[in-house]
Amino acid sequence: MSKKGILTVISGFAGTGKGTIIKRLISSYGSRYTLSVSATTRKPRPGEIEGKEYFFKSVEEFQEMIEKDELLEHAQYVDNFYGTPKNFIMNEMDNGKDIILEIEIQGALKVKEKYPDTVLVFVLPPSAEELRRRLVSRGTEDEATIQARLARACEESTEMEKYDYIIENGVLDESVNEIHRVIQSEHCRTFRNIDRINTIKEELKSL
Amino acid sequence: MSKKGILTVISGFAGTGKGTIIKRLISSYGSRYTLSVSATTRKPRPGEIEGKEYFFKSVEEFQEMIEKDELLEHAQYVDNFYGTPKNFIMNEMDNGKDIILEIEIQGALKVKEKYPDTVLVFVLPPSAEELRRRLVSRGTEDEATIQARLARACEESTEMEKYDYIIENGVLDESVNEIHRVIQSEHCRTFRNIDRINTIKEELKSL
User: Fold this and answer.
1) A187: pLDDT strictly greater than 80
2) Given an 8 Å threshold on Cβ–Cβ distance, is B204 in contact with A153?
3) Which residues, including other chains, have CB under 8 Å from residue B110's CB and lie 6 or more apart?
């Protein structure tokens, strides 16, 4: 069905494993998907490649992108700006690629408001207890940070209903296949196939 | 995700091959699906089994079902009534089965109005010309009947936009997998998982 690419935004609480799902989705079905690359004003870390991890911009360049409406959404974390360049995404979608964009809830809802055809997917942990276990087992955060992340999750959970789909990340491979299935099914949604419908209407009339 | 069964109504122009798709869907993924069995006042043909092809009813029994609101929808063709018994479907859905109901457009829209959670799938031919070829190659209808069916398709095509999904039936196996994928993805729709969402909200609060 519809060959035009679909923009899918994936969000979820910290520690749910959405990053791992996305990596696996790209490695399993890479020919269908393109990962959105963010623009940022933060300095590149050793090994980071321009256009792969990020598009690295000066603050002036970033502000120019905002003014020229070249960003789908943007946000500031600590002292750095992060944003989603529109051009890159639109070109890839015109080439039939489905775009995966991993951003937090407020950004996701802004994107959906501007582009209602966007698919919003929220990744859930099997349980809150399991989420805590995953955060603890990463071993990278102290107890205070873990508590802060759980409090943040509690806050974020009030917005889950605004997403189109939820995926429970229990078994990784199943979650990857579920997200793949959801996005590919979206290609069959009627509103994405109006041209196809109009064509068959015309054909039937002229038979 | 949501374990409750989903009701899917499949429609399409005569000759599109929706019957074949449904048979293949049931034979390929039978453990997930139940085919809705209609009630009818027409007499059983040799070999037809009560509760398999149809629930056979007298006109009085059928009218009682209408009065008691036991039918999801019903219609009259020639001298016979046909309808979709509600109980059978609801029980199967409670048991986690996804229901496949093949009815024409007016019935489908009535069902969706009454039960907005219903998924409406419209099966399209690859082209109007291909539809005509398929009708001709069945060899069961004369030219006048084929013309009438094509005129009917032209009429029906005005309602296609009201469906949730469209599936183009080019390669049978692909269409079957597409419909399967669409229905299974629907289990991840947020509005079908409100209980799940409320549970995790409560869990997060009480951590």
Assistant:
1) yes
2) yes
3) B73
Rounded to a whole number of angstroms, the distance from the CA of A30 to the nearest CA of chain B is: 19
Helices (H), chain A: 18-29, 59-67, 86-94, 105-114, 128-138, 143-156, 172-186, 194-205
Specify the pLDDT at position B164: 98
CA distance B111 to B6: 13
Q: Are A104 and A153 in contact (CB under 8 A)?
A: no
ipTM of the complex: 0.92
**Average of per-residue pLDDT values in chain B:** 94
In a domain, A122, yes or no: yes
B32 by DSSP, 3-state: which? coil
Partner-chain contact A188 B178, CB within 8 Å: yes
Interval B170-202: pLDDT, tens: 999 999 999 999 999 999 999 999 999 999 999
Summarised one tens digit per residue, pLDDT across range B147-165 is 999 999 999 999 999 999 9
Q: Is the Cβ–Cβ distance between A155 and A106 less than 8 Å?
A: no
The verdict on residue B50 lying in a domain is no
Amino acid letter for position B188: C
The encoded tokens of residue B161 equal: 């936009």
Determine, yes or no, domain membership for A149.
yes
Domain, as residue range, for B150: 7-36+97-205
Euclidean distance between CA atoms A21 and B81, whole angstroms: 51
Distance between CA atoms of residues A11 and A6, nearest Å: 16
| Residue A123 dihedral angles phi and psi, to the nearest 5° | -95, 125
- The rounded distance, in Å, linking the Cα atoms of A193 and B28 is 27
CATH of the domain at B143: 3.40.50.300
Strands of the B38-40 sheet, one edge to the other: B54-56, B38-40, B80-85, B71-77
Residues in chain B: 207
- B200–A129 CB contact, under 8 Å: no
The verdict on residue A46 lying in a domain is: no
Which of A178, A188, A200 is nearest residue B165 as measured by Cβ atoms? A188
| Nearest-Cα residue of chain B relative to residue A186 | B182
